[in-house]
Known about the structure:
- The complex is a heterotrimer of chains A (about 375), B (about 375) and C (about 575).
- Chain B is α/β, with parallel strands linked by helices and about 375 residues long.
- Chain B has helices at about 10-25, 30-50, 70-80, 90-100, 115-120, 135-160, 180-215, 215-220, 225-255, 265-290, 290-310, 320-330, 330-345, 350-375; strands at about 55-65, 85-90, 105-110, 125-130, 170-175.
- In chain C, helix 5 (about 145-155) packs parallel to helix 6 (about 175-190) and helix 14 (about 425-435) packs across helix 15.
- The radius of gyration of chain C is 25 Å and the shape is globular.
- The model of chain C has no long low-confidence stretch (mean pLDDT about 90).
- At the A-B interface, helix 2, helix 4, strand 4, helix 6 and strand 5 of A face helix 2, helix 4, helix 5, strand 4 and helix 6 of B.
- Strand 4 of chain A pairs parallel with strand 5 of chain B, so a sheet runs across the interface.
- Chain A: Belongs to the ABC-2 integral membrane protein family.
Amino acid sequence: MWRRILTLIAKELAQLLSSRRNVAMLMMPLLVQLVVFPFATTLEVRSAAIAILNEDPGAEAVELVNRIAAASAFGTLHPVHSEAGLEQAIDAQKALLGLRIPPDFSRKLLEGTPVTVQALIDGRKSNAAQIAFSYIRGITSTFADERAGQVLPARIERRNLYNPNLDYKWFVLPSLVAIISTIGCLLVTALSLAREREEGTYDQLLVTPLTPGYIMVGKAVPGILVAMVQASVIAAAAVFLYGVPFTGQLWMLLLAMFAYALALSGVGLLISAISASQQQAFLGVFCFMVPSVVLSGYLAPVENMPAPLQMLSAVNPLTHFIALSKGIFLKGFGLAEVVPAVSALFAIAAVTLFVAHRVFDRQARS
Amino acid sequence: MTRTPHEGFSLRRLRALCIKETKQILRDPSSLLIAVLLPVVLLFIFGFGISLDTNRLSLGIVLEDQGVEAQRFAAVAAGSPYITPRFARTRAELATPMAEGALRGLIVIPPDFGARLAAGDGSARIQVLTDGSEPNTANFVASYAQGLFESWLHARADARGLSADPPVSLEPRYWFNPSTESRNFLIPGSIAVVMTIIGALLTSLVVAREWERGTMEALLATPVRRAELLLSKALPYYGLGLIAMAVCVVIAVVLMHVPLRGSIAMLFVATSLFLGSVLGIGLLLSTLTRNQFNAALAALNAAFLPAVMLSGLIFEISSMPAFVQAVTLIVPARYFVTVMQTLFQAGDIAAILLPNLLFLLVSALFWLGLTARRTRMRLDG
Amino acid sequence: MAAGLAVSIRGLTHHYAGQGAEEHALDDVALSVDRGVITGLAGPDGAGKTTLMRLMAGLLKPVSGEIEVLGLDPLHAASELHLRVGYMPQKFGLYEDLTVMENLVLYADLRGVTGAARQAQFERLLDFTDLHRFTGRLAGKLSGGMKQKLGLACTLVGQPELLLLDEPGVGVDPISRRELWRMVQALAADGMAVVWATAYLEEAERCDALCLMNAGRVIFAGAPGEQIARMRGRSVLACDIRGNRRHFLRRALGLPGVIDGVIQGDAVRLVLAEGQAPPVAELGEDAPRIVPVEPRLEDAFIDLVGGGPDGRSALAGTLAEVALPDHVDPEAVIRAHDLTRRFGDFVATDHVSFSVRRGEIFGLLGPNGAGKSTTFRMMCGLLAPTSGEAQVMGIDLKHSAPEARQNLGYMAQKFSLYGNLGVERNLRFFAGIYGLSGRSRDRKVAQMLESFELDRYRRTQAGELPLGFKQRLSLACALMHEPPLLFLDEPTSGVDPVTRREFWSHINALVDRGVTVMVTTHFMDEAEYCDRIGLVYRGRLIAVGPPDDLKRQVADAALPDPTFEDAFIRLIERDDAARAAAGGVP
């Protein structure tokens, strides 16, 4: 029987690669996403605009402003001359953050009296504004410490593990390894089966000695291959083009990719099992993919979500694979860390494949 | 017989085609699914799933020094409402949860902390180890650690009867969204994503469907005009988009308590212009491919992904490199996200709305115009 | 009555964008269509019929030549033309998710038919098509025949002066085809110009005027009678055949004087070359009675294209005799027992029982929606029966389906191979699926490529093949594992006569080797090839027997020599009458 399955797999791959257009459909989004996303999907604050209302003509205030201007996080500084001007600058999104330095800033600083600088934060973009705010807080407190000549009893020494310079690309690329390969795998498993149904070739297969189980294997393996090839391309690009360090074992990454692709093909087959047409399968893929990316921890930490969504996140294969991919790339994951997540993926695969098989089998007997 | 041989644009034909299209929408469960259920689900997922406000961070506190000051620091950490501390004596104990991401960072009080502190030369150090694999969270960890550190300075000064007010303090004041809930800016932005789905994804299927089912050929053999054909596809989905918009706004305002400060009229104008663009993109893809599968796939890549990734909804456009910023200029969602965030949280601010609405208008005219140009009233070409 | 010319075409040449200039879809075509008559546009697949229809409807821009429709240039006066021309494309152009009335209203609005005129026209069209009872039903829920009538009604809204019908009879049962014909005849009688495109020459034969096309060229234009008259004396029927009529046919086709032949029930119908006497000397021994019969247009067409296939199948030499395992009863290699299938309240197949002998061709016939497809699908294991048994080769499909399936070849109604894969790849795929590998697989694929003359299309994508070659490829794939049973679902729907003959010569060769064939069809010439026919109506098997027996059952004084189509229609009418008498339900 394994020969028949090989035949199915060879056919599927031949169909996938049958025309340049198909290959382009698989590879073009991959390449575009590979070029654009690592740069676009950043939560870093760079060259942000700041509005400054400096009411203090003193030298200390000028020095503070200069220091802010010198920071790479901030680009243009808009000087404004009134409280209203500050508010307008934020209203019109000319600035992410507004600073108001009070008239007595220099005097109080020299006197050693505590002085307050007001920061106006654009709540519409609170994440970026908060990050900018914390940068400015760092700048002002260093500045103040120096000026006050006061020696703090202790200092904080910060070190970023796994990614010392907090390079966003180190975070994005291992996650993209997971996200981008998702589309290819679902396409092959969910949509191609729906297409066979629509075009009548599924019936043609069902009158052969193949059972739905074999047909499923014949669809799952190409899906897994596509996902693994795409994931490997991105992983290679991450290391060789973007210089992301690879601290783990290659075979562990491949194992993780396989487990993820298997779980994903289970989901894809399940979607195709319950959809009557390509259009429905497409909607199904869409309805799975969007929440799965949102709930994967890629866009926002899982612990911030309400409990029900955290539970969904735990059964989301993408959550586990992103954790594995980041861990193997950046954190030098060993077996102890890899085994639980990979087991979770295999468990998801077992459940989805089992249910999909039940549905297919029942349909074939109806 | 009422037959005028050379009539041009006919409202009667347009009306007939619109009625037909509307009935098809109402009878197709999948289009209703996209128009009503999907917005609700997506809004909830975006609203609750993407919370960028880190509420409580799990941090490990490693007390390698057991002295009085280290204990004081531990007490401050235990009392903080912002973190969930996990205490340990050695870093090794917390290495695994740290690697697995169960802990977002470690604050280490080194063994010589107490001794150096006593020396009073400022050489005492508190180490903060963040999980750099998530840079955004790492910054939050650093900032929370700074807060703990300052609290500890206060507590220490209080115990000695001294003042520990910092010489310069920064007082934050929130302009709009005072509670700084990320939901308040993510929800208005995700409405743009929902509108993109309705406009582009749904319409990408409709013209292709007529070609696939052979009804286009019959339609082209009637006196129908190009403008009628195009409008009859656009108008019903425009209506559907407005309904979905209303659903979204009600969910956002009533269920999720996102404030809406702008006027409904402005919301209507902006939505209309944006729907013009996305309907145009969807219809164009559908017209060009004449194949539902390819059209939907193209719509996914050309409309949906950019609306999420390149619209400024989650990722700040000004932080992107110049070439990506240039790409975002042709993404209509970019303008609509800005308009929505402003309308919901700030109100009708002409300085922002006008230029963005202008861009939306240009984009709508461009896409609809291109669709009209590429719509053929014959089977060839 | 508006007499005169409705369409005038001269020197029309067209090719599609992807085609080279030498591959013409239409090559120097001339055509005149008169008002008040039905003009048949006949020819095989790829002859250019649809292209010509689309050009007349102003949907394509011709490469060169003159075309004038109702005195207008279809290209530049398209919108005026579209008010006066009704065009029904192949799939009828209906919105399946709209009701009958909504479809009508849409087309009325599009053609500017409003107010009282609309009411009057709707009334007349609904009467005409007998769709009054179904105005609230979704078009997608109509049977094939009703869809076709609705398509016609939508096309007729606005009283067009010219009606263009593109293969309206495909996929529709004989009763509906007859009704459609009557309707169109009535329209032509009122002065409408009608163009009826078809691959079926028995349809074309009934037209008032005829344009025969082949490979983009017009090969005959005139009255069908001219062609039929030309063939007089050349069509004969060989009756009382001793021995196997399939062998007889093959032998007859091998004679130089015989250009065409088909099986017609128990007899064989032959067409002789020009000036040939009936080959009594060669065939008389097996067929004591060779009588002249009325020629048909199909005979003339075959003559025009240089004769039909020779009846030999290259397949014959490659096949081994089917040997049945001991436990299989040769009288019942396929057996249905009390087979019943319900969909909700609806009983699609109602206690159907029959069995098929080894080496027999068994046909399932019935009107659209009668339950013939449901029965067929249960027999090849695509659908599970609600009750009763479906057995092939003594194996119950319910229990060991994969085993049973290794025994059957299946050819679907719609082309259902992988269109984006090459011919050879498709063959290799099915060979692999049926468990062939290595050298035996290579050998089998090479054999199929040769037997079905697919060699030159080896690398062509299956979806791009001409219809006839698609048919061959489908059959080749179904035969890859040399199955003892072959299931054919409307195998030659929409296919021209030459291709149909070729197809059946392969089937005949298979049957000779002991292959058992089960086939569904809407076409009477295919039914004539069957050894026995099961007629399915309202879920039940209302008649079973050889085609000639069924014909004899309905023969009476008024119709002493019924065609199979007559038999089909009468048997169904009788069943209706019997039901009405029994239950009072119409």
